[in-house]
Design goal:
About 2% of the residues have low confidence. This protein is 33% helix and 24% strand. The protein is of the alpha+beta class.
Length: 503
Amino acid sequence: MSDKNKEQAAPQQDENEMFEVRREKMQAFADLGVAPFGHRYDVDHHATEVKEEYAHLEGEDEGGEVSIAGRLMAIRGHGKASFATLRDASGDIQIYFKLDVLGEEKYKQEFKKLDIGDIIGVKGVVFKTRRGEITVRVEDFTLLSKSLRPLPEKFHGLKDVDIRYRQRYLDLIMNLDVRETFRKRSRALKSIRSYLDERGFLEVETPVLSSIAGGAAARPFITHHNALDIDLYLRIATELNLKRLIVGGLERVYEMGRVFRNEGMDVRHNPEFTSIEIYQAYADYNDIMDMTEGIVKNAAMAVCGSLQVTYQGVELDFSHAKRISMNDAVKEATGKDFLSCQTVEEARKMADEIGVPYEERHGIGGILNQAFEEKVEETLMQPTFITNHPTEISPLAKRNPDDPRVTDRFEFFAYGRELANGFTELNDPIDQKGRFLDQLKQREAGDDEAHVMDEDFVRALEYGLPPTGGLGIGVDRLVMFLTDAPSIRDVLLFPTMKPIDHE
């Protein structure tokens, strides 16, 4: 049995043995004077370009000579001629090896030693087979990288999600739809940047490491700086530094980048994820809601070509988003008006009547938020802005001028999931310091996600923050919607995974 046949008959064959077979072929190439791991190669076409450029070929017509490179995904045929599938960044193309064209020595000594998974460069002439498939007849080829490990068996492919996430390189080799997901992700990010750049926003970069973890309610990752002998935190948000830049007069800024939260993991949460935060001086939360709709619409058109996006079997219409206050949404769902309560005891009684859990530390606003999360959030399938969040849970948002118990804040939901959070920024340094102090009390009462005191941020506000609107969007969640991905891990190239024993 030939080496190639051994491998094809080897679902049960020990992978180490297959590895050794390929190493022997690698050495055989070296003995022939062929470098098994080559150097640069001139590529003038990609697979898709060849198929599009020569789609017109008929009968015995031939196209021009092309130079392509990629990975062998299949080899078919015996004797003096073989077909193979070459996969490059653009997709697959059929190539044709023929003894009479390559010469007996090249065909028998080099082609016969190629394996599925090897990366080669090919020069040849384009033609169309009798079955109508655009093909490159190989006139010469060069081994560029010998694959020492076999690819997954072709009929079953790579479907184990754990392996796909852990070995994303293998996932990208085997699954063209995964490559397309990340191309769509790139288009979405470009569309967001384009939308903001065209409106005069400046993209900036702020530190990942900080002595204070601020800007959101979340548990941070802690690390240690040896030279300074201090603990530092990986940022949980970019908010406070970006608002410092507004104080400095930049007026319109945004940052897209990684943030880190030391919390649970599920289909919507990864310890590190991409967010974009945007701040506009002299704007309020109504302006920011309009901006949010514009960004999402722009991304949907860039990726899907439509504002109607099907996600997990549900058609989401991003052409228009409903706007409703948190209290009104809860009242619609439960009949309970929590903001009519004069005391915490009244709010607790209402919560008990509809089976909403709460903690001793929760005030009326906290209980209202609990009712929203329990009774409303997952029902918000179509795009919806929930506005006027309680001041108690919004330490960085400006109070509503008509009702100081709530803030000029919104969250944007679709498919029952939060996609964005924005508000009119709190620019009163005295109020801000009081909110921080209140958050410290909540930390002392057991809320380890409550905000810490940031004296320098208060100092910045004391120099004057103009009226400002701010927005944060979970980029990964937006990409999930636009690519119909069920898990956040499907839109992260390298999601966080628990190491397995041998790692």
